[in-house]
TrEMBL record:
Superkingdom classification of source: Eukaryota
Provenance organism: Wolfiporia cocos (strain MD-104) (Brown rot fungus)
Name listed for the protein in its UniProt record: DUF6593 domain-containing protein
InterPro entries assigned to the protein according to its UniProt record, in alphabetical order: DUF6593
Segments forming domain DUF6593: 14-159
Length: 170
């Protein structure tokens, strides 16, 4: 497995509305909420075309219930799944949250307010999100291993979902 990593910089601390750019300032993802409590995460085609390992859906959608309670999410045209299922907890009091990617593989996010680490079933880190230093112009940095680019939309989606869960105390 190549050790090449890709870094996306998150602009905006707001998990509901943000953008991710690469080192060349090319927008990779946009996160935006509309007034009907539907949130869309869009992977930018121009960024994906520059990275041939990028696969999977180009969009995901969050459908929240009243007062932003957990609802469901949809990847592209796939069937809906519950938000709860996309951030399963295996042990009580654990801060880790699990999700199953569309390729059938299970991943775990270790969740803290300033750092989220995504780990594959073999225990290897495939993505790391960390808040930035005050001097940085961006809010956070998402570093993704080349091997995880195939599920990049799912990583950004579940990262965003976990950040929203932290902000809403789900």
């Amino acid at each position: 497995m190549p050790n090449t990593t890709y870094t996306l910089f998150q602009f905006s601390a707001d998990p509901w509305n943000a953008r991710f750019e690469d080192a060349e300032k090319l927008q990779a993802f946009k996160v935006e909420e509309d007034p009907n409590l539907i949130m869309r995460i869009t992977r930018e085609a121009s960024w994906a075309q520059r990275n041939p390992q990028v696969m999977g859906p180009s969009n995901s959608y969050f459908y929240f219930g009243p007062s932003r309670v957990q609802g469901y999410l949809v990847y592209g045209n796939s069937p809906p799944q519950s938000m709860r299922n996309a951030r399963r907890q295996k042990r009580e009091n654990s801060t880790s949250r699990y999700f199953t990617a569309q390729n059938g593989k299970e991943f775990k996010w270790r969740v803290t307010p300033q750092r989220l680490e995504c780990i594959d079933s073999k225990g290897g880190t495939v993505a790391l999100w960390e808040t930035s230093q005050l001097r940085d112009e961006f809010h956070a940095r998402l570093t993704v291993k080349q091997s995880a680019l195939a599920i990049i939309t799912e990583l950004v989606t579940t990262l965003t979902l976990n950040r929203i869960a932290l902000s809403l105390n789900w």
